[in-house]
Amino acid sequence: MPALSPPELSPREIAAYRESGIVIPRYRLPAAKIDALRATLDRLIAENPEIRPERLVSAHIEGRNSEGVRGSRDFLDLARDPGILDLVEQLIGPDIILWGCQIFCKPGGDGMAVPWHQDGHYWPIRPLATCTVWVVIDPSTTENGCLRVIPGSHRGKRLYDHMREDRTDVVLNQAVKPGEFDADTALDIELAPGQMSMHDVHLIHGSNANRSPQRRAGVAIRYMPASSLFDRGLMATSAQSGYTVDFATRPIWLLRGSDRTGRNDFRTGHRPALVAG
To answer: Does the pTM of the predicted model rise above 0.85?
Structure first.
């Protein structure tokens, strides 16, 4: 087995993130860890039969969370992985807040598409800033609906106009309006289990439906710099994404450094066993 790459981004990788809005680091997680996460995911799918596996929001919170999902601390442990945090620190600085973690699992045959969108359109973070780390659990290919991005669409640091689509065959019900970007520039992000990508909050991205027989699963971990505020009153409980999120009571964790705003709330939503350490 080849040696694992160190948890460090090269100057070229950092430049690629700044220029394109996404980077695929050399660092990857060991197979044993991914196998364990896959087993946890299979258990969570069985424990959440009423929820589409593309919509397992706050999957890092043990037990049933305020957003209706039964999660597992295994994904919280993943979000605290020192190697991943080392990478994130190089992109957003030493003061790191974990505020979200969602499973996007597309079953073979009927896995739902994710329309072109910007994450920041849905999030109560001001100033708007987040680095999402997408950790791959199953092989992610063009055939089974891998992540697709519009490189460079983050550069203006603006939110494009979105339109609402009341459809039942997509994960999110809002999409960037046609004409706002050139879909012909889309890049497919094919990754193997244990690999990850990191993308900017303003990057336009999405994915196609999974019509293949092979499942596609991964976890999106959301990190914001502690120079921003997770404003619980800005959106609070909302279903504007197509499923319920509860920003008013969702717990957040200060994983490194200090809260530069002095206003982020690290108490709300925490159960005694989950208090940030």
So the answer is: yes
